[in-house]
Prior knowledge:
The protein is α+β, with helices and mostly antiparallel strands. The chain has nine helices and 13 strands. The chain folds into three domains: 2-185, Beta-Lactamase (2-Layer Sandwich); 194-258, Helix Hairpins (Orthogonal Bundle); 266-405, Heat Shock Protein 90. 29% of the residues are buried. Helix content is 44%, strand content 21%. A hairpin with an 8-residue loop joins strand 2 (73-80) and strand 3 (89-91). The model is unreliable at 1-16 (pLDDT under 50). The protein starts with a helix and ends in a 7-residue tail after the last strand.
Amino acid sequence: MDAEGLEEVDTEYISPRVFTERDFIDRLLTLQRHASDLCDAYTLEEISHATHRAIKHVIDFQGGSLSVVESDVLLFNYFWNASETPTKEMALDGPGITVKAAVTGESQNIGNVVDHPEYVEGSGEHSPKVVSERAVPVKFHDKVTGVINVESVTPDAFTELDQRLVEVYARHVVSAMERLNQIDRLREIQEEHTKELIQGADRATSMLRHDLRGPLSTIKNAAFMIEHEIDKTKDMLEIINNSVDYTIDMLEDLKNVTMQSKLTLISIDVNNLVAQAVKNAFIPDEITVDLRLSDGIPSAMMDTVKMKRVLYNLIKNAIDAMPNSGKLRVETMMSENNLVVKVQDTGYGIPDDLMPRLFKPFVTSKVKGMGLGLAFCKQTVEAHGGTISVVSEELKGSTFTVSIPYMPAPKN
């Protein structure tokens, strides 16, 4: 592509200089070397140095820069052949040949800057007197991100071929700059992800310490009662068993989210699975249950253990959302070729600020619990190729909908 761009130039109109085949090959090699150097550049400063080396090898100039567009100004952080620090920035709504290249997105070639209306003289007292200037925009998808500028002390110093060369360099530069932007974005994502993991781990260990303290204290107290009041042994053993079960549930939630395992698919009666989940749930007398099992729900291939856990989590959350009283509705249905289970409560609803993060690990509005149940539900449902969603209104309740593509059980 670069060679074709150069071949388009008619050397008859380039300049009085003799342009040999050796010059042509040298410039192509310089372009190749520049592209290679930019692959190893990981900062704008390194991009600037590589571009300076490449341009000065093929174009005679006394001053130059790589400037970057930022907001409404052009920042000059990278100067070439400057004996002192010139102007650091220029407003995009002001004068300047480099500014014009940035604003219009078109290359500017000024053979003589004397009395040129757009020219702004540099602030360096000992800088060479600029006579001609070439400014080429660095563009990414028609958006100008910077400008390559070269200056000379002689008039009409830069040819059409020089412009084509610098424009090719500009394309190299914008590719390198975009690569740096992608690296920065990936680094930000990684840092944010690492931060979330650390915060999640901190929260998990904190919650685990807090939540385990309760059942362990209960077990210790029950053991004390057995030791001192033998007639209460049966009641205390039941308390111990319940506390152990609660502890196992917490550890199981943590394991299910942190250790992903393959699905074990077997043929199950979906209505029976849902009915058993409701039957096995501890539902207070103050909560009425409306179980609606649609006729004609076929047996399907699912991981029974994991789906039981999904239903357990959704039903338990619904019950926890109605501490005083309410109505729990659980229903099954077919929607097109999807098996659908809905769990609805008339509880206090989910806070709006929690909704976007609801299915992420360690997110919960409960005083007790680690916020792993819904994360496990999402993970399991998606492993079945399905989706889980929620509609909620504060003080009115929530409806969780699980939709899984129907996978028929194999015929005997």
